[in-house]
Amino acid sequence: MMSKHHPSQSTSTIGKAGAPPQFGALLMTDSGAQRSGPPYLFHGLTETEIAHVLGSGKRRVLYRGAQLFSQGSPQDGIYLIESGRIKVFYTAPSGREITLAYWHSGNFVGGPEVFKQGLHVWSGVAAVNSTVLHLPGDVLRRMVMTIPALAIGIIEGLSFKGQCYSALAQMLGTRSPTERLAQLLLHLMNLYGVEERDGTLIAASFTHADLAHMTGVTRQSVTISLKKFTELGILAAHGSNLVIKNADMLGEIRDGKLAKTTASDEA
Question: Are 61 and 23 found together in one domain?
Answer without folding.
Answer: yes
